[in-house]
Amino acid sequence: MSILGPTLTRRDFVKVGGVLVVSASIPAPAKAAAGADAATHTLDASKLASWLELHADGSIVARTGKTETGTASTAFYAQAVAEELDVDPMKVSVIGGHTDETPDGGYSAGFLGGVNNLKKVAAYTRQALLGLAAERLKVPVASLTVANGVVSGGGKSVSYADLVKGQQLSLAIPVTGRLARIDPKDPIGITDLMGIIVTGEPPMKPTEKYKAVGLSHPRPTVADIVMGKPVYSGDVKVPGMLHARMVRPATLGSTLIAAGKIDKAKFPTAEVVVQKNLVAVVSPNEWEAVSAARAVAAVTKWTEWSGLPGSGNLTSNLRSQKFEDVGRRGDLGKADAALGKAARTVAATFEQPYVRHAPMGAFVATADVKADGAITLWSQSSQAQGARAHIAHIMSVPVEKVVIRWAQGPGQYGRTTYGGDGAMADAAILSKLVGKPVRVQWTLTEDLAWSSTSPGWVADVKIGLDAKNNMVAFKSDWYSPHENDARMIGAVLAGMPEISPKTKPFYPAISTVWAYDKVPAVVESAFGVPNLAHDSANGGLRGNIMRTPWQRQQNFALEAAVEQAASVAKADPIEYRVRHTTDKRLIEILNETSQAAGWKSRPSPSPEARKAGTTPVRGRGVGVVIRSGAQWVGIAEVEVTPDTGVVKVLSFTTGVDVGKVMNPRHLKSNMEGGTVMGLGEALFEEVTFDQSKVTSTDWTKYRIPSMGDAPLVKTVFTSRDGRGINGGGEAANTVSANAVAAAFFDATGVQPKRIPLTPAYVKSILMA
Amino acid sequence: MPSYTLTVNGKSQTVNAAADTPLIYVLRNDLNLTATRLGCGLSQCGACAVLADGREIRSCTTTVARVAGKKIHTIEGLPGLWAAKTGKPLTPETVHPVQQAWIDEQVPQCGYCQSGMMIAAVDLLDQNPKPSVQQIRAAFTNTPPSPHLCRCGTYTGIVAAVQRASKAIAG
């Protein structure tokens, strides 16, 4: 398919003599990119023009199906392209997401995968440009150098812009993979979510020579956000569009008996729209849609339903379910044998309720469905090609008929990673029904009740210790509903064709990265069940992935158990961890972070620990995780007031070794933000429900950290060459919950078996 | 529908809206000022904050009828507010020091709450030009009707940006 082999060298490249497509003028942003196919609304990823445009003014436009989710990946993409081409990163702009303007699709989860495509494309382009420059300057490629987009050699020089001016050239980009598509055999129901991958090994700069990568390059859209430009999905205005508000069922499993009617005297331009259990009110005036929807909701009749266990009974309900064995890592027989021979064992059960992504803005989408079936959807989905395939499936049209126009949204934290969840189906179904463009804005209450959630879980952990109290065996069994449900509630309610998530294969069943490699016998097993109330009319509590999925939960149990073993060993918790690992990078970042946090070596609990009293008692704790090639350490200092059960985090230090730091300012921001998100799980967050519906439906009932709840986060990181470029955007939330739980134990001498550490739970365990 | 005359970002404008329409819908839909973001709609998060006569209000629960006659400023109007305060001409390059600090500190992650955060910062610095870290944290947490919430957890960056803006305003 490509003229370029997988191991291209500079010399070979020139021999191949590929021609380079370059546009001499900037195409209007609304127009499809060069090479876009008007019939399929899809770019050909094997053509350079689908990825990169070099303009005569020296500016460069890069295109990727990945989107900005708030981790500053668009800054990293610009830096990576600038690096390989040796241009100023300020000259590079990034177009992301739009399915008709970007070539590759793929996850927007972090930058690691996304940046590789653009890096390689830029590297191929550099080689082609050097070839052109060699001809122009009549010097061999090997003697050329590039700085700031100017190629020099033999005492002469020419800019990229001059090289490409007025030329119509072409360059093939070697790619593999395909865009996301529906696959009933896939556990999610949508496959190829990785999208198209650029292959081959074009010569690329070694990290030691990086200049643009490593700068605190500003993220392209930050200034627009700050100056109040219309950059969000909710800001989209389509001529003639109607505003819609949804009227959701009275309970999670209710079906419609009769939709309420509109009082035309009060709401003259509003209409009720119904398809099966999907009920909405539309109006050209947004406030009329809001008010009329409230009035209609009050008189709409639904069947009664109760089929949830109630969140207070979650653990016992999970225990009573018939779990499927969904995956194992390690040797069960060996671990059991080692446990049998251990001098002593430490066993504990840990658990966490349902939590959710809970962004500051509810889902919103605008759809324009034409009579011929063509659909344009303005969406904040971070998996635009997945969403495109998904909507095509729901609406029973060929995928070529669907265009997703991406715009930034409130944080997604994983909930749209699989190309599902959200208001897109509502908008498309309503637009088709009313024959006009429709903008659907969910409410916070609706979002906190009807969006997908990160399921509750229970884990049983057993650690075997030798005579010196060193760990010789580790066994964990992790039980949870699956996190594969990317269905859109609008499609489920309206009875449209939908994907069907499955419990098995449950992947990756075990997501922990085992840090304690000196422990000789380790086995970790995972057990899955479908959604709670999965057999109800509307699919039950839809389980979906959330920031650092599976690993966040499984690592909590792992680290909490290690904490307990360290305490039995009467060892300092950091020293005990170091004792069980050969990971030099982990030891290094543990040392650096503990130094920054002022950690003093001693075992937990603290000599001052107590579990009663009206005055606060302090403790400190550590949490560790290895994620996406990076070693993370969190150290918390907390204050517990035993008699009130109130836990306050006084300070927090987060350290990470990501190898080469791409962008210090944004790494720091991601570390700080992720830490705060984890504190929410540690202290407050729980999706509550009664027997029929979710009840934690506003910010007083689903509490997330405020500025006063979170300390100023201290960060520790150093850019290090020779260790690769690893993930820095995601996992800080994992270490903060562990560190807080450990600090609570240090302060009170009582180990929490559950998060969040709410006053009620804290009082219950301190009084026990 | 009744009509209301509002002074928004220094400009007097007349809109037709039901009396109970929250200001945010008038700003976003009638006046095309979309920097004010709809968060919770319940005065619980602060995403929709705007200035009314220089003080923060929540536009998701404040009706258009209640702000008629008041001077409203949104994020789009902060450069104008700064130009008026300093007596300098308003140009397309004018940026309020709070906005400049937010850009310099690269505060936003998803950014959805940040319009409200910057409004709260302008209100705070107007009342207390040199706030301590503790006072900044208290202002964003304890000012009624609710804390200003950020799910991305950018609070450390916000504190740094308010301190930076405070220095810039002091000159």
**Oligomeric assembly:** heterodimer
Beta-strand content estimate of chain A: 15-25%
- Relative strand content of chain B: 5-15%
> How would a crystallographer describe the biggest sheet of chain A?
7 strands, mixed
CATH class of the largest domain in chain A: Alpha Beta
- The residue fraction in helices of chain B comes out at 40-55%
Arithmetic mean of pLDDT of chain B: 97
> Based on CA inertia axes, which overall geometry of chain B fits?
globular
Domain module count of chain B: 2
Helix proportion range of chain A = 25-40%
CATH topology of the largest domain in chain A: Aldehyde Oxidoreductase, domain 4
Number of strands of chain A: 28
Question: Could you write a compact summary of the structure shown?
Answer:
Chain A is built from 18 helices and 28 strands. By secondary structure, chain A is of the alpha+beta class. In chain A, the strands form eight sheets. In chain A, strands 13-14-11-21-18-19-20 form a seven-stranded mixed beta sheet.
Q: Which features would summarize this protein structure in a list?
A:
heterodimer; A: 768 residues; alpha+beta; Aldehyde Oxidoreductase, domain 4; 3 domains; seven-stranded mixed β-sheet; five-stranded mixed β-sheet; 28 strands; 27% helix; globular; disordered N terminus; B: 171 residues; Ubiquitin-like (UB roll); DNA polymerase, domain 1; 7 helices
Explain what this protein looks like in three dimensions.
The complex is a heterodimer of chains A (768) and B (171). Chain A has 768 residues and is α+β, with helices and mostly antiparallel strands. Helix content of chain A is 27%, strand content 21%. Chain A has 3 domains: 10-212, 2-Layer Sandwich (Aldehyde Oxidoreductase, domain 4); 235-304 and 363-441, Aldehyde oxidase/xanthine dehydrogenase, molybdopterin binding domain (Aldehyde Oxidoreductase, domain 4); 574-767, Aldehyde Oxidoreductase, domain 4 (2-Layer Sandwich), CATH 3.30.365. In chain A, the strands form 8 sheets. Chain A has a 7-stranded mixed β-sheet. A 5-stranded mixed β-sheet of chain A has the order 16-24-23-22-17, with helices on both faces. Chain A is globular, with a radius of gyration of 27 Å. Chain B is of the alpha+beta class. Chain B folds into 2 domains: 3-76, Roll (Ubiquitin-like (UB roll)), CATH 3.10.20; 78-170, Orthogonal Bundle (DNA polymerase, domain 1), CATH 1.10.150. Chain B has helices at 23-30, 64-67, 78-86, 97-104, 114-127, 133-142, 155-170; strands spanning 3-8, 11-16, 49-52, 55-58, 71-73. Chain B has a 5-stranded mixed β-sheet with strand order 2-1-5-3-4. In chain B, strand 3 (49-52) and strand 4 form a beta hairpin. The chains are: A alpha+beta (768), B alpha+beta (171).
